[in-house]
Give the backbone structure.
Amino acid sequence: MGVERPSLESRIRRYYAFDMLVAFQLWSPFWTLWLFDHADAFQATLVDIVFWIVSLLVTMPAGAIADRYGRKPALLVGVAIWDAGIVLFGLAGSLPIFALANGIWALGAAFMWGTASAYLYDTLAEAGQEERYPKVVSRAAMLTSLATAAAVPLGGLLVFLTRSLAVPLLVYAVPGLAALVVAATFREPAVRRQAATGLAGQIRMGLRTTRDHRPIVLVIVFQVLIGVVTYVMAFFRSPFISDVVGGDFLLMGFVWSAFFVVAAVGGLSMGRLLERVGEGGALRIAFFLVFPPFLVVYGASAGWFSPGLGLTLAVLAQTPYYLLWGFEGPMVTTIINRRVGSSDRATVLGISTFFVTLALAIFEPLVGLLVDATDIGTALALMALVAVVPSAYVVAAFRRHETLVATPVAPPVLGRVP
């Protein structure tokens, strides 16, 4: 007697549970502060680019492995290594150990980014229910952000009670292990994939697919530009807000919780946003969410405002980035997944991540030097000023190449957003 296969609804619910457990990131406001306890701004960025260099080396092969050998094995490997890297980061007490932990963390992330999106996409495609993508992706993005919103006040309470910034990283082992258990119950999607010969051939196939679709190239360039700006902003957000709130870690936890509630709103709105304004319209909205708030960040850092007003504006200036965080991943993977098949879906998503990580590995330490030479607000404003013109060009170029396809897909699992 055969084993009964889980229903599509059960598989979707398990994916939601997995996504939420991975996103239960108690450490989100505190991991950079833990690193800054052991390093100045430039040293911290050098440690952090270990994450991006490892990602740079691994993301394309990891995507090719997921396309050749299956989504489930890649996710199991990814979440196990990811969890180990985060716990080691919490145990670190020197820069070499921080760097080692970052490398392990990145290796796990490389197997998760893109693969989770491909898994859910193919699960729904197997059942012939592609029309459900907008509803599923919106709910997934909302639930993951709400999971982080619930986790960060608990992380703040742990820091408040133990006076240790490392504790949330260590305690994350519990939801991380639970995510691994849930992933073990996944069933590999039964969709047809025509794998290339060898991993190198798989990567070449993904590169050809990317090259042959100009909208994919444009969205990768856009993702590189805003990815550098928003991630570096996120990397320095914790010390920036910590200074503003006077080192009140419990308050920081609740501030971050509010940020992720905003991200949940952004995720929930993604499906309807694409329906109403299209892909090009979503890119334009992303552009205006990223760049204008940097003026407020600079003003708050430069002391343009009274302390009370500066605190309010500094917090409010972060909310557009979390709106963007809620729908950027779904938006980018929507544009890519609409144009590629299952045979190289994870590989192309890995190529996208490759170029973002390449840019971060180059520019993040430069911003760290600027922060040490000036201040956080000035360095971030200069970075935004450099990126704004090419970003505007890409948005305009994409509009000319926009196509009318109407099936969004799922976001990748949340990576590391400080």
